Amino acid sequence: MKIAKVTGTVVSTIKYEKYRGFKMLKVRHLTLEGDPTGEELIALDAADAGVGDIVLVNNDGGAAQMVVEDRSLIASVTVCGVIDSYTWQGRTANCH
Questions:
Q1: pLDDT reading at 39 higher than 80
Q2: Are 60 and 44 in contact (CB under 8 A)?
Q3: Distance CA 57, CA 44 (A)
Q4: Residue 6's beta-bridge partner residues?
Q5: CA-to-CA distance for 79 and 49, rounded, in angstroms?
Q6: What is this structure's pTM?
């Protein structure tokens, strides 16, 4: 699992049937210091996150399969939770 920031939403007129009922979000991983790193990714939202939220993402397709309750689902990034704050090396980062 990694920390990421929601940078946008994905809107589609045609969606893979198994994704119906779930939002798709653009996310970018963050370092523990809060700096963006890597490319933006598309994530299946299982935590009702919104643009600007700091979230916990799972980069393993198994998380999406558990959320949707379908072992055949293909999704590599899933937003699993919205982070309020975290502590790292004795410093607490508030995310709101």
A1: yes
A2: no
A3: 9
A4: 27
A5: 8
A6: 0.87
**CA distances for 51 relative to 27, 47, 65, 72, 91, angstroms:** 9, 12, 24, 29, 25
> What letter represents residue 6's amino acid?
V
Q: Are 70 and 78 in contact (CB under 8 A)?
A: no
For 58-92, what is each residue's pLDDT tens digit?
988 777 788 777 787 777 899 999 999 989 888 88
Could you tell me the two tokens for 14?
A: 């045609």
Long-range contact set of residues 34-37: C-beta below 8 Å, sequence gap at least 24:
34/93, 36/5
- 34 phi and psi, to 5 degrees? 95, 10
Whole-number pLDDT of residue 85: 93
Pair 73, 61: CB distance under 8 Å: yes
In 3-state terms, what secondary structure has residue 92?
strand
CA quadruple 51, 72, 15, 82: dihedral, nearest 10: -10
Residue whose pair of structure tokens reads 């590599």 in the numeric block: 76
